[in-house]
Structure prediction request, 103 residues.
Amino acid sequence: MRKILAAALLTIGLLAGCTSLRDARGPSEICEVHHAFMRSVELPGPKAGVQLPPEYIETGIKTFPHAMPDYLPDSRHRVMLFICDDCVRAQRVWKLQHPGAVP
Ligand SMILES: [Zn+2]
Prediction:
């Protein structure tokens, strides 16, 4: 009976895939820079990091900490994040002002 149960659980696990969901939203749903409510989004998890310029990282921490993440997506993992629309706009402006700086 245990073998049948173990086989059934294994089959269900294989059919459901091995996708995992990690909640990385943090403790507050209010952006500490823009003082605005953020929206919760579910995105593919990181496959690998992208080499980002230090000035982009420093500016991002100070002015758009809750913008869209920069990484190669991995379809096997999902991540939940808070995204601030004002941070996304600030990130977009920075990238427009520094063409080619971020891959
Ligand atoms: Zn923000």
In short: DSSP finds three helices and three strands in the chain. Confidence is low (pLDDT under 50) at residues 7-15. The pocket of zinc ion is lined by residues 31, 33-34, 66, 84, 86-87 (CB under 6 Å).
